[in-house]
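Bench notes, afternoon.
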Amino acid sequence: MADAAGRLTKLAEEVLGAPLPVRIRAWDRSESGPPGAPTLVIRRRRALRRMMFRPGELGLARAWVAGDLDIDGDLYEALDRLAGLIWERDDAPRPQRAAVVRALARPEIRAAARELLTLAGAPVPPAPPAEEVRRRRGPLHTLRRDKEAISHHYDVGNDFYALVLGPSMVYSCAYWESPGATLEDAQRDKLDLICRKLGLQKGRRLLDVGCGWGSMVLHAAREYGVRAVGITLSEEQATFARKRIAEAGLADRVEIRVQDYREIHDEPFDAISSVGMAEHVGRTQYGEYAAALYRLLKPGGRLLNHQIARRPVADEEAYHVDEFIDRYVFPDGELAPVGRTVGQLEEAGFEVRDVEAIREHYALTLRSWVANLERHWDEAARLTSTGRARVWRLYMAASALSFERNRIGVNQVLAVRTPESGESGLPLRGRDWTG
């Protein structure tokens, strides 16, 4: 059928109730839409079947990961133009499906939908891409399920992450002293900022929860002389971190464990860093997590919690994780507003002393990671799969825009297990962390 792009543009605008802000190029080489705009390329009719059987974000995600759907032009501009129509509509808990249901009540839309069925081909739902997580049934955040979720995200291959993250191997928001700094400088400055906030000194004992590839414990041991324990649920991360530590000659001062935070019983620690870890814990478990960290700290010890935060919603019980992120990136991960995080730390017994918002820093970090991935695209796809590389490119680019537009943020929360004497150990002058 000729002019598939024109027909799809008309149908999309009828359903969305707004002009389509991008061009469409279909498998029959037809094009439609505003000249000069980024182009949504529908390479195969199978993309339509994916979106028909799962309207909204998940159908689009599956089409993208499988390579049925692509962007010709600036990816950031395309995502920014589409965000208000796809990800950011707030007229219902599941707005994309709700919009489709409302539209299908209209005769002209039902006629267009029948035409779409003809365009899409055989009415059989395509199998999800191999990169989509397959989860076991049962309750969230058991020890076993959390380990499987972490493995899905982090056991992609250390060589792949080295291409994306660069030599620092730090997979969290960097701290940019100036926009012209390098990613390596910004990650080093972030690690050092955390060490200073924690008041680390020679001989003190640090626990790094969710230690990744060991960068935080390495920096703290090398630059501040601490004894450190790093824990992760990823076997690949642990193997990589232990090798780095041995090569640095720090094996006598740094230990890496494959261990859940609920399994630690060799407290107390003088300080705890939790960087990019709390997002994996989950809303129902966060109170338990905060209580565990409080128990593991000695009186007077400090916690630095570095955590992504979402904006509050009117009905917190209706909050749901984006389907693309849940199925392809962070299974079972959840975000909380920063106020809720602070409240739960206080409920666990902590005295919260400082909250530093560094939202713009994460946008800079993510754009650097996307640039690394694009620069090494062929090798990254070879090390994992083309689908996995496409997952990472989409999620990091979309996340960069979300931080830039204040849809999500990231905060460093400094808290103290203040003893009964009330002596926090912090200086009178704010943000002079040396004490």
